[in-house]
Specification:
Length: 289
């Protein structure tokens, strides 16, 4: 008995042999239904994988090639979710401002799949446009929040922006509902930038974000990341942030001199023996010294 495995397109043929001369009529009907359902399942699985591949390709195409920045080393990593269609919402960015500063950005759009990837691209473009007009981190987030409220009322996102200005020993930063950045001092001590973040971008209330200033000694490293790195179903986000802080503190000075290698080393203990069902972005910024 040869049964087509069909749905929108042909998936194959199911070939069965009867234990006797032929299948009983009831058995044949049951096998025909089984083949029909198997064809639909195979077609759905193929379409699911295609959507995932397209979302990941779109996501990666929009990730930034980090600029060369004298006095500031940059390294970034992006890892798609290990299972599910949870791809598309996380991004990082780094670009020069009109005053010679460097802006480092990390963000996370709510939702997953193709829609989140497309919305992420729109958000990234709008953020750059506001920032290159000379707006600081807080003002940029405020303008982005207004745009989302009026033009994308069903879209929400978290974001953090850090601005490094040559000749100034520190960083100006602002956050919109995003996990707190970490700072590793040159001696290995790690602190959390735990100033209260503003609300998520797009929440339907007016809001003005605030700038914060943090002193950064020479050789300090700022770590920006998305929640996929620190959040697990088996543990809360605070435990994940603590684990990330410990991992950052254990990196040696020699490792941090090669910041790309340091980014890889930082991910190892965070992802060991764990599947992550969300995107992960990590952006490291290290001052010279």
């Amino acid at each position: 008995l040869c049964l087509p495995l069909g749905a929108r397109t042909a998936q194959g043929v199911l070939t069965l042999s009867a234990p006797g001369e032929r299948f009983a009529p009831d058995t044949a009907v049951m096998l025909m239904e089984l083949a029909r359902r198997a064809g639909i399942a195979l077609d759905n699985a193929r379409q699911y994988e295609q959507h995932r591949d397209v979302a990941e390709a779109l996501q990666r195409a929009q990730l930034t090639e980090l600029p060369d920045t004298p006095g500031l080393a940059l390294a970034a990593r992006y890892l798609p979710a290990t299972h599910g269609l949870n791809i598309g919402g996380d991004w990082y960015d780094a670009f020069p401002g009109p005053d010679g500063s460097v802006l480092a950005v990390i963000g996370d759009v709510t939702g997953h799949g193709l829609r989140a990837a497309v919305m992420m691209g729109q958000l990234r473009t709008a953020l750059r446009a506001y920032a290159v007009e000379g707006n600081g981190p807080a003002r940029t987030l405020t303008l982005l929040h207004r745009m989302l409220r009026h033009q994308q009322p069903e879209l929400y996102a978290t974001c953090a922006i850090a601005r490094f200005t040559p000749g100034e020993p520190g960083v100006v930063w602002a956050a919109a509902g995003h996990p707190p950045a970490l700072v590793r001092g040159p001696g290995g001590e790690v602190r959390v930038l735990d100033a209260k973040p503003g609300i998520m971008l797009g929440v339907p209330v007016p809001y003005e974000y605030e700038d914060h200033h943090e002193e950064l000694p020479a050789g300090a490293t700022l770590a920006l990341y998305t929640d996929g790195l620190v959040e697990r179903r088996s543990a809360g986000i605070d435990a994940g942030i603590d684990r990330l802080a410990r991992s950052l503190g254990t990196l040696g000075a020699a490792q941090l001199e090669r910041l790309d290698a340091a980014a890889d080393a930082l991910l190892v203990p965070m992802l060991r023996d764990s599947e992550h069902d969300d995107d992960i972005c990590l952006l490291l910024c290290r001052t010279a010294g």
